[in-house]
Amino acid sequence: MAGVVLTPEDRAFFLAMLRRHGNSAVHRRMNALLLLDDGWTAERVAEALFIDAETVRAHRRLYAAEGRAGVERLAYVGHAPVLGEAQAAEVSAELSGRVYLTAKAVCGFVAARFGLAYTPHAMARLLGRLGFVWKRPKVVPAKADAAAQRAFRDDTLLPLMAQAEADPASPLLFVDATHPAYDAHPASGWVRRGARAVLPSNHGRVNVTLNGALSWPAREVITREATKITGAEMVAFFAQIEARYPLARTITLIADNATYNRAAVVREWLARPDCRVRVVYLPPYAPNLNLIERLWWFFKKKALWNTHYPSLADFRAAVRGFFDNLAQWKPELASLLTNRFHLIGTKPTQVSTA
């Protein structure tokens, strides 16, 4: 009895489309019309499809009025946003200058500023549409000077790196110390939902202190364990680096402004007539321009985060093992240790606990 409602062409089209559509409103309309076309009553179709008979008749009227195109078109229109365009722009500006800890806190700002009520869930969705995500702010030195960093990067650092690439007799190394603590270093990771991951911590304040130098462009690493970083320790480390490059005319070291890097004993050692080492000091509060800082971060990520070492000896072995086996990380380090430097020191975004 097919042909009661549909044209043969539309029937064939709907049958084909049913094999492609998922369980959608369009799918259900086509199904209802095909059953009506087979001679079923609206009540029988409604019972089979678990809808009411009036909805089935509405589908038939829609097809009769607008044909196949009407059946395929969904005319759902969402609610108009509560915030107007100008108000949404003001919310964006507020969040660009202040980090709110919760969506509920943003609801409070919107209520106070515009007298409009949002639930935290609705606000979270709105913030997503405005381009905001929930994440932790990055801690940077408050006194960092972006202009000074830019001048140092462009006028000093990048030319030194280019010179080291072109002239093997003029090696360049980034120098800094790290002090990993023998304790728990928790970091985010995948944990079964409902379960709690536990990372044992160690009591006490024991550190392993490492002096380090990272060469450019070879990315070779020199380390020296020390009891404490002092001026005398820096002299010993600089001498170790100098001995590493017996054929170099000049060895340039990039270092920060720590007191031990500028100690009198260091200045005296550098002033020797036959000294081949020279130190170029970073601008104040500019760890982002010291390439070895990225190596320290990578080391902690691979060797310390979410890992418990039962004894201090195990901890020291893990630290030493990382630097003794750097070759296994060569591809990752090559992409991490590059001559691209970001600048810090722009106006900080405040954090609101409201």
Comma- or semicolon-separated keywords:
two-stranded parallel sheet, Nucleotidyltransferase, domain 5, 7 strands, 354 residues
Describe the structure concisely for a colleague.
By secondary structure, the chain is α/β, with parallel strands linked by helices.
How would you describe the overall organization of this protein?
The chain has 354 residues and is α/β, with parallel strands linked by helices. The protein has three domains: 8-72; 85-129; 146-188 and 204-336, Ribonuclease H-like superfamily/Ribonuclease H (Nucleotidyltransferase, domain 5). 45% of the residues lie in helices and 10% in strands. It has 13 helices and seven strands. The strands form two sheets. It has a five-stranded mixed β-sheet, sandwiched between helices. Helix 1 packs across helix 2. The longest helix has 21 residues, at 146-166. The model has no long low-confidence stretch (mean pLDDT 89).
